[in-house]
Amino acid sequence: MAEEGQVIACHTVDSWKEQLESANTSKKLVVVDFTASWCGPCRFIAPILTELAKKMPNVLFLKVDVDELKSVAEDWAIEAMPTFIFLKEGSIIDKVVGARKDELQQKIALHSAA
């Protein structure tokens, strides 16, 4: 099971599905960071996401490398990196495209309180 307070990288489709299923059961807010190793803004936002994960153990933070898990990125229609998808009980409730720190923090606060 996932450690609380960290960003969990999903390296296989199975681990991705496993994380989503456990999140759906727990009814936690899930923030998925669709990222790429070559993406400058992704590298900029990664430590910020890690800090948020430490401060908010009630939120599940997942990271998917679009080059590593192409099928997952395609399933979720990811066109730009970073893209953050917000999920609750398996449904998309919000989205942030780009390394927009303030908007990301606001939306996490908004949806984790609900």
From TrEMBL:
Residues 1-113 form the Thioredoxin domain. It comes from the Eukaryota. Pfam families: Thioredoxin. This is Thioredoxin domain-containing protein. InterPro entries: Thioredoxin-like_sf, Thioredoxin_CS, Thioredoxin_domain, Thioredoxin_H-type-like.
